[in-house]
Amino acid sequence: MSKQKQIKTVKHTRDILPKDFTTDTSAHSHKFQYVENVAREAFRRYGFQEIRTPIFEYTELFARGVGEETDIVSKEMYTWRDLGENNTPGAGASLTLRPENTASVIRAYIQHQMWVQSDLAKLFYVGPQFRREHGRKGRFRQFYQIGVEVIGKSDHPAIEAEVIEMLAWILQELKIENTSLLVNSVGCPKCRPLFNERLKEELAPKLAEMCGDCNRRFETNILRVLDCKRDVEIVAQLPSIQDLLCQECQTHFSEFCSYLDARQLKYQVDPKLVRGLDYYTRTAFEIVTTNENLGSQNALLGGGRYDGLSETLGGPPTKGFGFALGLDRFVISLPETVPDPSTPTVFIAHLGKEAFDFALLLAKSLRQAGISCALDFEGRNLKNSMKLADRSKARYALIIGEEELAKAKFVLRDMVSREQFELTEAELLEKLKN
Ligand code: HAM
User: Looking at residue 282, what is its pLDDT?
Assistant: First the structure.
């Protein structure tokens, strides 16, 4: 170690590493890859196409899209002023690292006039998001989301049930258990103001007993009072939004539920589920888990309908529905062992200079035939090479020494069954391909 001061990751951010380099199983990169692969397979089956938006945008996008008064925009964003003309510090536009991806996707939908090509754009994204968090379990300042957005002309509740059906498949495929689906309707611009009025009437006389957050939310975003984890007794007495929905919202919600029923997807209606972003209308949902490694941050994913977000961002009248799952939280909830795609199929143990040169070219042929293989660049004896083969978790070890080279036949050892085979190069390729 040199005498220079070491530089580490910023507080509440972390490195996601290959499993060999950390014992923290929640930071194993192959697990992130595994969840992503399963999700990508689901997106293929359900017809979603990938979108990648910049990780920073004009601050105004999130201020208008997510809502000035939300915790995300008011407290959690990483915002800075760009350089202005002639590189004047602080004189440029206000920019923000994206705290979520829905606003950016809608911005892109409008910017590229996607409605011209398609009545319904079905998009997915995978990538980092940034929120200034303070180190609670399951909350990171840079975290990863996988999300989808269905944007266009239709607000059919079957779209919502289909997206949730896809999520149920992803969870099942990943063997993530102990989850519950919570659903609610947060109403529309017609009925929500009436509900907010009712909340105001009920809460005004009780404000003095309530926490600071509730007092602030009473003024700025009263619906969010329902999410308070401190004044639970007062919140429990409040009217239910489910009883005050307009006829259209009621019909939409009951159809949504019947589409879930038809798919035998289990859910609980939670009238207190209001979500932390302002753009939602009608259906809102979350999938929560009882996994204790996540503490109170039990939402694995959340989403809902956001008809009207396009108009807020200067676009045409558009319907939208989507979700984002917390990849870091999914990884924490996975079973202990999951397939690691970086595990080689074969480890080549070579003995002597001639064997090494041969092994290098054989590795090339194997890799070009689609077989993953590893080899070591140090000259080791057989015992140490086999130790490395063991550690690599390769299914096979291939032994090449002078004798094998002379015979042009190599020893392939099955590391699981311990069986050994003597094979020519062609036989070897054939066997490993299968
Ligand atoms: P969100 O509820 O803010 O919704 O985030 C979705 C998920 O991201 C959460 O359920 C959680 O799993 C994960 N998450 C959020 N913050 C953190 C954090 N600091 N550390 C780790 N994981 C976190 C949205 O972002 C909406 N854009 C979802 C959406 C898409 N709605 C419609 N379309």
Answer: 98
